[in-house]
Each structure stands twice: as structure tokens, then as C-alpha cells.
Design brief:
Number of domains of chain A: 2
Number of helices of chain A: 13
Number of strands of chain B: 5
CATH superfamily of the largest domain in chain A: Dehydroquinate synthase-like - alpha domain
Distance between the termini of chain A: 39 Å
Helix content of chain A: 40-55%
Oligomer: heterodimer
Order of helices and strands of chain B: HHEEEEHHEHH
CATH topology of chain B: Nonspecific Lipid-transfer Protein, Chain A
Radius of gyration of chain A: 20 Å
Largest sheet of chain B: 5 strands, mixed
Strand content of chain A: 5-15%
Number of helices of chain B: 6
Helix content of chain B: 40-55%
Radius of gyration of chain B: 14 Å
Number of strands of chain A: 9
Shape of chain A: globular
Shape of chain B: globular
Order of helices and strands of chain A: EHEHHEHEHEEEEEHHHHHHHH
Structural class of chain A: alpha/beta
Chain lengths: 385, 139
């Protein structure tokens, strides 16, 4: 089959090694950064990770012009505006984000406002940012969102209970520094759920209606790496090798889904996050296997393609192999100690119908292999409850 | 050479599509979206706003040609030629956005919400052009 169109972009230079954050200043300096504005959160500050990065910046000849350390677990439009105002006042010519998806997405939002002017919401749309923004460096402290390499940012409006997506090929950071030492000691539950988030990015990117040959290659290897290393990273939190490979898996999955987009699992997870504050990775983990089952009649061959990456021996018709892949997904989540039912993740049964309505209108649903109505999603929610 | 010689042809063909859609089941989908969309076209310069947020009484949506005070949720900008090809179902939306042939301003959720609403119009547009004697534009 001749694909109709290919569009793949990834503007981020990715560097990785244990202890690399000690060279953060040198690398920021190499891309022309002389005055950094640091973006992070209070937990990471208490853990000493922000200090470690700032010491390295200073040692590398990069002045720290200022910092914003009040990024909440789910970034917010007002937080981005406040942080951008602080950065604007402090000066600086490079943003350095140290944290998980919320921190990095906040920095992306700040970068739009600082580089283009106006308000964050001016950049809601498609095809609006067509030139490079200011310099941005990301140091992920979780292995899940892949935000350090994606072309998008998700920022919540807490008051309106809505998550806004921003997208442009120029949103991706200039440099991603993958240092497993920055993720050592992350609690098992968080390691497992963020890792399953990364796995969901890879799997949904691979079966997405917008998948392309480049994203396919990245997604397949991402699944293999995450499947191999997630249990070890979860149960041996200080295993540097496992932490390194999970950062790689998350990064590959991020590059894949940033271009191929995702599907119904993410649509449902977004809805549950908005209504019940279910952590995104946990919702994805619970819903990935049911989501794949839902898509079985429309994407059996693509799901079966994932078998070698899950260590499943392809056998018999594609549907049979695909079912074995789905079981492998369930086993991985179980091995990592994650729940399989929505009721164990804080979801209320009386809210499922509203969640299904929200998921049916979520942007992610439109690249799902099988069309999904609110009624069909509600059936899936109820079966998984 | 541009498909439409002036704005009045844009309004006759593309504006007419929206008027024709009012008598098609498609109109209910547009009404249900409750979104106001403005299409800004160039070559020739023209603009059409379809407002399902504030419809006139008894109608699924309002159509405004040219300038209007109606406030859109989403603004789509493109050449009129691209719009014509789009309504014929010959433009890959993702590709057009990636190539810079189209630009969309507004909440991405609202833009995406439009996709299933728009799709049935791809069949209606060539049919409508034939009805108004513009088969020459259906290639």
C-alpha cells in the first residue's frame, strides 16, 4: 500500500547517560545559553534535584537568572502565565525545565508566550507556530510522558475543568538530557503508572490511523524496551540501568505518538483525569488492554505486529496473536502491581456516563482504528469498572 | 488560474453548500456541534461564517457571507482553491495543515469536533455543484 502522506518531525537533540546532568551547564552553554530560567516543582526542589541541576548550570558558566518552582501536578493556564511573567522579568535566554510532563509542558507554554508575545490561549489551534521559539532544555525526572521530545503540550484550565492541547513542530525542546540518576528512587507505584503511560503512547501510536513508517519503527522498539525494563525499574528503584532504559523507552514512545497521535485509551484516560483526577498513567494502564480488545476487529494485524516486542511468539491467525499481546499487556501491569479495575482508581460508577460522553468528544478518539460512540465507550467503562 | 473568479462565486458555491445542507440530514450534525466557524478565504478574498452557536429561531445554524459581528470559536484560513478541493473531499486535512495550506485558530478540541460533522459534506458538495449547473467544477 502506498501511504497518502508522511509528516514526521522531531527537533530535539537527545543526549543520555548516567550522571549527565552534571554536564547540563556545558551542554546548555553549547547551544548558546548564557542565562537560564529554571522551571520545576517544590517536590523536586526538596529532593535536591533542582539544586543539582542549578549547580551544574553555574559550573558550566550559565548564570541562573531566576526560577519558578510552583508548577502543580497538572499544569494550568494561569500557572503558565505567572511563570512566563516571572521569566520575562528575570531575563535569561534559555528555559531549563526539570521535572515530569507537567513541568516540561509548562515550560513549553511559557516559551510560546515569551517568544511570540500575547497570552497562552492565543496559540490554541493548528499551524499557528511556524518558526523556532526561544531555547528550551528539558531534563525529565519521570519516564512516562516523553514530553522532553514531543511537539505538544497539555495544559489544564482548572476552573473550567478542561485540558487544552497545544501543538507545533517547534514546541519540542532544543535539548533533552536523559539522566537516569534524576529518576532514581521514584516510588514503585509512580514508576509503574508512568511507565504504563509510556507503553500506551507506543502501542496506541503503532495502531493509530495516523501512524507512519517512522513512528512505527520508534513505537515497536519503545514497546520492547518498556516491556523488558519496567518491572525491574518498578521493583528495583535504584537500578540505574533499568532507569536509563525506561527513559529511552519513554522518549521513543514520545517521539512516536507526537507524530502518530493516540486513540481511545487516551481519550478515556483524559476524561477520567478531568472528572475524577485519576492519574493519567494509571488510567491508561487500566484501559490499555480493554482498549485493544475494543479495536481487535479493526486492527488485529497491527496489534499482532507487537508480539515480538512483548516477547510473544506469533502463532496462528493475527487475531489469536493479538489476543496473546493483550494478555501480555495485562500481565505486565499486574507484575508492576497496578490495579485492573477503575473502581480501584477512585472512579465513581455514577460518573461513567459523563466520562463516556467526554471521551467520545476527545481529540484522541479520531485516530482510533475503530470509531467509538459514547455508548460504546460506556460499555467499555462498565466492563472495566 | 483560480477556481473561483470572484467572491460572489465563492458564496454561490461554498456558501450555497451550507444553504443546501440545511435541507440535508447533515444540518442536524452541524446544529449539534454548537460551534461557530469562520472560513477566511484568499484568492479571491472572501469569508463565510457558519454559526451553530447562535442559530436563528427554527433554523439549525446561521450563515454569514463577508464581514459579520458573529464571534467564531474556530477560524479556518486557506486559499479558496484549497477550500474547493477540501469540500470535494480531495484534501488530506493533516497534510494540508502540515504543509501550511490551512491554518486553524481556536480550541483544538473544537476543531477536531468538526471533522465528523464535515465529512458528509464531501458527498453533498459535488452533488450541489451539479444541481446549480457548475459540473465544470467537479473534476
Amino acid at each position: 500500500m502506498l501511504p497518502e502522506f508522511l509528516d514526521f518531525s522531531m527537533r530535539t537533540r537527545v543526549m543520555g547517560s548516567a550522571g549527565l546532568v552534571r554536564e547540563l551547564g556545558d551542554q546548555v552553554s553549547r547551544i548558546g545559553g548564557t542565562k537560564a530560567f529554571v522551571v520545576s516543582d517544590r517536590t523536586l526542589e526538596k529532593l535536591g534535584l533542582v539544586g543539582r541541576a542549578k549547580d551544574s548550570l553555574t559550573a558550566g558558566g550559565v548564570a541562573v537568572a531566576g526560577e519558578f518552582l510552583d508548577v502543580p501536578p497538572n499544569s494550568d493556564v494561569s500557572v503558565v502565565e505567572r511563570a512566563a511573567a516571572a521569566a520575562s522579568g528575570a531575563g535569561g535566554n534559555v528555559l531549563v525545565a526539570i521535572g515530569g510532563g507537567s513541568v516540561i509542558d509548562t515550560a513549553k507554554g511559557m516559551n510560546m508566550v515569551l517568544s511570540k508575545g500575547g497570552a497562552l490561549m492565543d496559540y490554541q489551534g493548528l499551524g499557528l507556530i511556524n518558526e523556532p521559539l526561544g531555547k528550551l532544555v528539558a531534563v525529565p525526572t519521570t519516564a512516562g510522558t516523553g514530553s522532553e521530545v514531543t511537539n505538544m503540550a497539555v495544559i489544564k484550565d482548572q476552573a473550567a475543568r478542561v485540558k487544552y492541547s497545544f501543538t507545533s513542530p517547534y514546541l519540542g525542546p532544543d535539548l533533552a538530557v536523559l539522566d537516569p540518576e534524576m529518576t532514581l528512587g521514584l516510588p514503585p507505584g509512580l514508576t509503574a503508572s508512568t511507565g504504563m503511560d509510556a507503553l500506551t503512547h507506543a502501542v496506541e501510536a503503532y495502531i493509530s490511523l495516523s501512524a507512519n513508517p517512522v513512528s512505527d519503527a520508534l513505537a515497536l522498539y519503545a514497546v520492547k524496551v518498556i516491556n523488558e525494563w519496567l518491572p525491574e525499574a518498578t521493583h528495583e528503584g535504584f537500578n540505574v540501568e533499568a532507569r536509563y532504559w525506561m527513559l529511552i523507552g519513554s522518549n521513543l514512545a514520545g517521539a512516536a505518538f507526537s507524530n502518530a497521535l493516540v486513540g481511545c485509551v487516551h481519550a478515556m484516560a483524559h476524561a477520567l483525569g478531568g472528572l475524577f483526577d485519576v492519574p493519567h498513567g494509571l488510567a491508561n494502564s487500566i484501559l490499555l488492554a480493554p482498549g485493544l480488545e475494543y479495536n481487535l476487529d479493526f486492527a488485529a494485524a497491527r496489534i499482532a505486529d507487537l508480539a515480538p516486542s512483548f516477547g510473544v511468539r506469533p502463532a496462528g491467525p493475527a487475531e489469536e496473536t493479538a489476543r496473546a499481546v493483550i494478555e501480555a499487556v495485562r500481565s505486565l501491569a499486574k507484575e508492576c502491581g497496578l490495579p485492573a479495575r477503575l473502581r480501584d482508581a477512585g472512579v465513581r460508577e455514577d460518573g461513567l456516563a459523563e466520562a463516556a460522553e467526554a471521551a467520545a468528544m476527545d481529540g484522541a478518539i479520531f485516530t482510533n482504528p475503530r470509531p467509538a460512540t459514547a455508548e460504546e465507550l460506556l460499555v467499555m467503562f462498565r466492563k472495566t469498572f | 488560474m483560480a477556481v473561483f473568479k470572484d467572491a460572489s462565486e465563492v458564496y454561490e458555491c461554498i456558501g450555497g453548500l451550507f444553504r443546501r445542507a440545511m435541507t440535508d440530514p447533515l444540518s442536524q450534525k452541524v446544529a449539534d456541534s454548537k460551534i461557530a466557524v469562520r472560513f477566511n478565504y484568499s484568492e479571491p478574498d472572501s469569508a463565510i461564517t457558519v454559526d451553530a452557536k447562535n442559530p436563528p429561531p427554527g433554523q439549525p445554524y446561521a450563515i454569514y457571507e463577508g464581514e459579520t459581528s458573529a464571534k467564531p470559536d474556530v477560524v479556518m484560513t486557506m486559499k479558496a482553491d484549497i477550500a474547493h478541493q477540501f469540500w470535494l473531499g480531495k484534501v488530506n486535512l493533516v497534510a494540508a495543515l502540515a504543509k501550511g495550506q490551512m491554518k486553524a485558530v481556536g480550541p483544538i478540541q473544537s476543531i477536531i469536533k468538526l471533522i465528523p460533522v464535515i465529512k458528509p459534506a464531501f458527498e453533498l458538495y459535488p452533488q450541489y455543484l451539479k444541481e446549480i449547473g457548475r459540473s465544470d467544477l467537479v473534476q
